[in-house]
Design goal:
36% of the residues lie in helices and 20% in strands. The protein contains eight helices and ten strands. The chain is globular and about 45 Å long.
Amino acid sequence: MPPRVKICCISSREEAALAIAYGAAALGLVGQMPSGPGVISDEDIYSIAQIVPPPISTFLLTSETMGEEIISHHQRVHTTTIQLVDELTEGSYQTIREALPHIKLVQVIHVINEHSVEEAIAVSEWVDAILLDSGNPNLAIKELGGTGRTHNWQLSRQIRENISKPIFLAGGLHPGNVQEAIETVQPFGVDLCSGVRTNGKLDEKKLEAFFKTLR
């Protein structure tokens, strides 16, 4: 079975409808970030999330790192899922779960080196899924996604082999490399932003090419 597809950086109801029409199983809605593409207001995230029919998932990408702030961010937008693009520095996953019992939690791990593998294994027991991306939270201005770069897929495969939770693979995926990425990592899902866009806009031709490649 081909992996689930999450189309990220959705900026409008029209883009949401287009992604769903081609077969997206999930949409990424980007909240305030220190850098990177696709940021929209909480009002827009809420507006888009309201029109997405089940079983399509809506992911709030939040750069908040404190449990209470993450809960508060979600209460403004009401998505089905929270994607934590940075590490949790205060509070706990348990606190978030208790406040938002029906919301899925997905932790992003930026795959940089062997330490990323250990980090993913450690955090996996607390969340519903892990999303592997190519950012770098150690930079002065953090990169927390949307880089358009691939990372070392062998490390991603190692993570996938060592945890029981679903893995989403992100980072520089496009119609030309997604088949190799899937064969190497065998993820539960793949996640695209720039790979299906032209000048920042969702490109129907690229979407079509991508889903054709998957099938």
